[in-house]
Amino acid sequence: MSPLIQFKKRPHVDRWLDGFVPSEGLENDARTGDMTGLGHILQPNTIDTTHGDILYIEGLTVRFDGFRAINQLNLYIRAGELRCVIGPNGAGKTTLMDVITGKTGPRNASVEGRVFLGQTIDLLSLRESQIAQLGIGRKFQKPTVFEAFSVWQNLAMAQKGERGWMYSLRHRSDQALETSLDETLARIKLLPQAHQLAGSLSHGQKQRLEIGMLLMQKPELLLLDEPAAGMTDEETVELAELLNSLRGTCSMMVVEHDMTFVEALAGESGTVTVLAEGAVLAEGTLAKVKSDPAVIESYLGR
Ligand SMILES: Nc1ncnc2c1ncn2[C@@H]1O[C@H](COP(=O)(O)OP(=O)(O)O)[C@@H](O)[C@H]1O
Ligand SMILES: [Mg+2]
Q1: Which of residues 6 and 64 earns the better pLDDT score?
Q2: How far apart are the first and last CA of the chain?
Q3: Considering only 1-10, 184-193, 224-233, 276-285, which range has the smallest mean pLDDT?
Q4: What is the DSSP letter of 208?
Q5: Is 191's pLDDT higher than 80?
Q6: Residue nearest ligand 1's atom 4 by CA
Q7: Which residue lies with its CA nearest to atom 12 of ligand 1?
Q8: Are strands 82-86 and 251-255 parallel, antiparallel or unpaired?
Q9: CA separation for the pair 302, 281 (Å, rounded)
Q10: Is the C-beta atom of 94 inside 6 A of ligand 1?
Q11: Does ligand 1 have an atom closer than 6 angstroms to the CB of 64?
């Protein structure tokens, strides 16, 4: 029996792990398009979500000098899902994103468990730059746009392309780029500001621009760390509209404190995960987790 199969806990995961033999060849399979033990032909860098999950995290423990920032965490996110993650300060939310994006990994920290993108890509075996290539986009708390460039230029520079961003800036007539830019500008509601310097935008507009920059890279999974922090109520509503409009185009994991914002994203049926002390404290609809006594004690009641 392979080590991976011994980890199985959920019936639908068991089925796809059957016959799967993890090895050092795993990383190669994902990149070269080889046949895997699952019987799928993988194209380079394609994420195999045929069994439903885009993110599969099991038994994840991350230690900093012996302190467990993440403690035996299990988290499964379905392809296409918009998952809200809430939890008190220090719960391990940002550390979780650091692990998914490879900023924190076995190379620079004590990390145990499994973190898979789709069913075949072992994120713990990859470097940060390789993970970025796989289509995981991350939005940090503070907007990081190029203030001295226009909104349009920021988006052009962000687009993923073999020719690089200098080409994007010089060749304004590239039709595919124009179309993609216009679509993104409309989606992030910054068409009127297209030729304004990014430095002159409001905080909320900068946040939307940064999300637009991530969208130019056509992400499969977007991780957003407290994107509504510091926003006005109106900006928060606009951000929720933007993220809701992205449903169906990519999967998202949104860490947030603002409960009105979480409510706008999760609705009545969306799954909300509550993290506390590095583990999942509760999971379910917002109404369900809000009424959970453990959640009230650890977080909401504070
Ligand atoms: N690089 C690090 N070194 C030591 N401790 C860290 C490091 N990163 C995070 N921590 C600790 O891990 C815990 C979780 O932090 P973090 O993931 O930032 O929580 P959250 O984002 O939920 O507020 C905190 O106690 C924090 O101090
Ligand atoms: Mg944080």
Answers
A1: 64
A2: 46
A3: 1-10
A4: H
A5: yes
A6: 64
A7: 69
A8: parallel
A9: 15
A10: yes
A11: yes
Question: What is the C-alpha to C-alpha distance for residues 171 and 148, in angstroms, rounded to an integer?
Answer: 19
pLDDT in tens, 6-29: 333 333 333 333 333 333 333 333
Q: Is the Cβ atom of 129 under 6 angstroms away from ligand 1?
A: no
Closest CA to 216 of 196, 237, 256, 188: 188
Report phi then psi at 139, rounded to 5.
-110, 120
Is the pTM higher than 0.70? yes
Q: Give yes or no for a contact between 120 and 38, defined as CB atoms under 8 angstroms apart.
A: yes
Phi/psi region, residue 33 (left: phi>0; alpha: psi -120 to 50; beta: rest), is: left
Tokens matching residue 72: 């035996």
* Residue where the block lists tokens 């490879």: 102
- 208 CA to middle of ligand 2, Å? 20
Do 223 and 54 touch, CB atoms closer than 8 A?
no
Q: Which residue has the higher pLDDT, 11 or 153?
A: 153
